[in-house]
Amino acid sequence: MSDVLIQGGRIITAVDDYVADILIHDGKIEAIGRSLSVESAQTYDATGLFVFPGGVDVHTHMESSQGPAITCDTYETGTISAAFGGTTTIIDFAQQEKGESAKATFDRRLELAEPQIGIDVGFHLILTDVRPEVLSELPDLINQDGVSSFKMFMAYPDILMVDDASIFRTMRTVGTHGGMVNLHAENGAVIQVLIEEALAQGNTSPKYHALTRPRIMEAEATHRAIRLAELAEIPVYIVHLSSEEALQVVVEARDRGIPAFAETCPHYLFLTIEKYDIPGFESAKYVMTPPLREHSCQHALWRGLRFDDLQIVSTDHCPFCLNEQPLGINYSKQLGKNDFSKIPNGAPGVELRLTLLYDGGVRTGKITLNRFVQLVSTAPAKMFGLFPRKGAIAVGSDADIVLFDPNKTHTLSAATHHSRVDYSLFEGREVTGKVEKVFLRGELIVDGDRYLGKSGKGQYLKRSASGAIL
Ligand code: URP
Ligand code: ZN
Ligand code: ZN
Ligand code: ZN
């Protein structure tokens, strides 16, 4: 592979902001400086563009089953979509079947993903069946396989939910080996009662998805998760935090010095609960968990992002088509046409994270450019054991680089995105700031509208266990 030289861009990292050239050799950043010149290098002019480290999205669900449903992006299409959005690393999930060993879960997922991925990929392991034999496998997964984070669900009873004892046991085991526990924090048992009540009253429309998942039940589970982690003396990471009340719990814990961390997602920052008032089944587009919240929560979330009570913005990309065709009912929200509780939970977004956060966060003055890079790249890399290989523009780091035009205005639409999903949460939204070129380990994989990457060229990332201290 010949050397690559990116000239004259404005390099923005979590802490820096300066104009310089970047020389890439063998997929790594070899030098950063002014007026670098290498005769044989393939040269790109980045004058007038921002140069960001590649995005790191630590919450995606590709080819992921949810009961009878399966998300409509494969590892191939999902990583292409991510690449167009300036994301060069995702951490996806390997989900344990009941009765399955944790190692088998990981091996099965890696085998499925590896030939397809166009960007680099790591896995969190989702534990659904926490037996003693399974716990005994976790140290090797952390130390040998590079799976250093384990996710459990406090919601979705009978399918994914595990009890507090399982969570606590996992925390103890994982904590001893420097790993991290991620929690979907909602009180699933109580939510189940609310769902049964709603259905018994004949309330079957998508709106009831939101009405049966109250903010205080997210806060309750967040509190429980953090207290369990506190007792187990392990850092804890709350996924897709959506409500003011849950954030308040995280803030309180952090003020006490507890290593509690949390992410939020663009849909909670930019959309509100009124979307469920759209008549008919169209509002099923917004059936994700937790649901969209009231406008006041957005103020709290932005404040949390600004003051580091929230450390990461991930997408929770979990795409199901609105329509049954062309992919079939199992890839579609239509499974819940007559019963909101059967609508597959999740929404797309892996392609829009950088653009939305830049347009709606940086340009509006809610966060700085450096904070933007911290939230979408550096903090996720650090939190999950990938830094400084990922999340940095520094000598020796992987040359995962995004050239971003801060002034280009474009309109978001399902017609132009690269996911297989048939809708966009942000259809018609005009944004300023566009990903122009994306390099993965020095190779140009996105150039404007052209995808130049290749399936299988992404690498599986073994992550270190030393994350969680930002
Ligand atoms: O609605 C969502 N978030 N679906 C994906 C599964 C999960 O809860 O993360
Ligand atoms: Zn979740
Ligand atoms: Zn407001
Ligand atoms: Zn998720």
Automatic annotation (TrEMBL):
Pfam family, one: Amidohydro_1
GO cellular component term, pick one: cytosol
Domain Amidohydrolase-related: 50-444
A molecular function (GO) term: hydrolase activity, acting on carbon-nitrogen (but not peptide) bonds, in cyclic amides
InterPro entries, per database record: Amidohydro-rel, Hydantoinase/dihydroPyrase, Metal-dep_hydrolase_composite, Metal_Hydrolase, Metallo-dep_Hydrolases_sf
UniProt keyword annotations, A-Z: Hydrolase, Metal-binding
Swiss-Prot/TrEMBL cofactor(s): Zn(2+)
Entry comment on modification after translation: Carbamylation allows a single lysine to coordinate two divalent metal cations.
N6-carboxylysine PTM positions: 151
Family: Belongs to the metallo-dependent hydrolases superfamily. Hydantoinase/dihydropyrimidinase family.
NCBIfam families to which the protein is assigned, alphabetical: D-hydantoinase
PANTHER family cross-referenced by the UniProt entry: COLLAPSIN RESPONSE MEDIATOR PROTEIN, HYDRANTOINASE/DIHYDROPYRIMIDINASE FAMILY MEMBER
Name the UniProt record assigns to this protein: Dihydropyrimidinase
Native source organism of the sequence: Desertifilum tharense IPPAS B-1220
